[in-house]
């Protein structure tokens, strides 16, 4: 069929299974073609083509509420709700979002990007339905990876005890981004292979139903036999014991099985989980055969070979960090590495292969990862926890209460610090400075290049107390065979360009923009100094005092939120010490930054060389006006 003619999912009601199969084929073909040009979460989406079609056929979205966990697998949902023509702009600046987005469609009733939120959201939506006396279905769709997240378990605990009516779709493809891990994953594996329990249970139910006159004592006895069967034939009937009816396992690529399971669930009063077995990457060989998680989400690729396009000149920051830590770990047995489900993104697979006994992928469990790092440190180990800036948000209390408060030697590698681009609002790594800097014992750094990063790694493993090192998405500079540098002086900033007219203070990738601006300003007769504020906490107070006494205006440049960023800390320092220097700050002002090419986003925000030049000039003009008035 012409997929471009789809306006909403209502057409599915008339389709039989054979027609749905053809539709699924067309959708797959479209996804493979379209994502080869734009990139995106192709593997996850190819796995849920039939499932999403079946959900839209049997439920009535948007009255019935489909809630996609993480939301990276909602492309088919977007196609079926009339958004196919926007796929050429997927994850691009001002284009279609890679996750559900309420402003795009009424069918997107919940937004996400972070994992394991769907069940709590579903509980809230279902409770509101019940309080308001409404009558619609609530259908959270959660993956086996997302089920390893603590929030999902907290929600199940509530849903099961409350017996709230909803249909939970558990999409089990045995993969998180990497192969899934953990006891929950092992348990699902046993359920997947154990169809015996369901068959026996079904046979008994069938038998009882066919005997309408059966006496209550006989029925009670049969029910007890049926209940005890689960202990005999299944390792753990986790969901049923929680009070959630379990239907499955269901072949997630078979429309008849899916329809049957969904229809049973619709008649049931109370919570139901349908355990759907799918194959990530289904229908496209490179993605289907992927055991490493590369095809979970990626950039444009060549369809015939599966080759990922785009040149890679230097190693990524993640690769550099993980490999440098690995080299140190080979010499220091106290060093262990942890990741909450991101061994692929954080490039820790080499560490995992070479030192498996000192590597922990704990699943999507940021809170656990942070506190476990604390536990390791409390016992004399030197844990390195690689964690994306955006996902560290979920481990904040653990960072504060468990790690920082106890002043433990945990080394956080804060991956994807700064703007990340295509994933957008939910994933920009721009809040960590604001939430980490108030923690009294924390050291927070960001290097300007990999040489400085090496010095910081060295410092982090020697330092007593928690240390966080931010590094961006993207690649290192590839500096050739540098001379070994002196160890970093703790808390010291570095003057990279002298200049008396004003000080431009920056760190990390934006430092280069500041240097370019200062060079251009020199040509315009303005003597701008540039300072590398490589320690965000503690700040170099000696240097700030000297700037303060010199009365130099200050321009700060950072790819983070202004509220709580370095600029605001410098402004507070100046005010607290009675300095009246003029200060301007460049950074992100009180808004969420959407998806798109990082350079375009930086331009929108004003984190550019041109704007640094402009703001420097404005700052100096304002200072001159101030002087004239005085
Ligand atoms: C809190 C949080 N941690 C980590 C991630 C990164 N992440 C995105 S999808 C994903 C795997 C999810 O696996 P699953 O739920 O099984 O979905 P699948 O991709 O297999 O369909 C991970 C780890 C995230 N989005 N949110
Ligand atoms: C959906 C999700 O959270 C991840 O798949 C994320 O998109 C990975 O981002 P990177 O590509 O930066 O590793
Ligand atoms: Mg999965």
Automatic annotation (TrEMBL):
SUPFAM superfamilies: Thiamin diphosphate-binding fold (THDP-binding), TK C-terminal domain-like. CDD domains: TPP_DXS (cd02007), TPP_PYR_DXS_TK_like (cd07033). One of its GO terms (molecular function) is thiamine pyrophosphate binding. Its cofactor is thiamine diphosphate; Mg(2+). Residues 315-479 form the Transketolase-like pyrimidine-binding domain. Thiamine diphosphate binds at residues 72, 113-115, 145-146, 173, 284, 366. Mg(2+) binds at residues 144, 173. GO terms for cellular component: cytosol. Keywords: Isoprene biosynthesis, Magnesium, Metal-binding, Thiamine biosynthesis, Thiamine pyrophosphate, Transferase. Signal peptide: none annotated. The keyword Transferase applies. PROSITE patterns: TRANSKETOLASE_1 (PS00801), TRANSKETOLASE_2 (PS00802). It catalyses: D-glyceraldehyde 3-phosphate + pyruvate + H(+) = 1-deoxy-D-xylulose 5-phosphate + CO2. Homodimer. Heterodimer of an alpha and a beta chain. PANTHER family: 1-D-DEOXYXYLULOSE 5-PHOSPHATE SYNTHASE-RELATED, 1-DEOXY-D-XYLULOSE-5-PHOSPHATE SYNTHASE, CHLOROPLASTIC. This is 1-deoxy-D-xylulose-5-phosphate synthase. The gene is dxs.
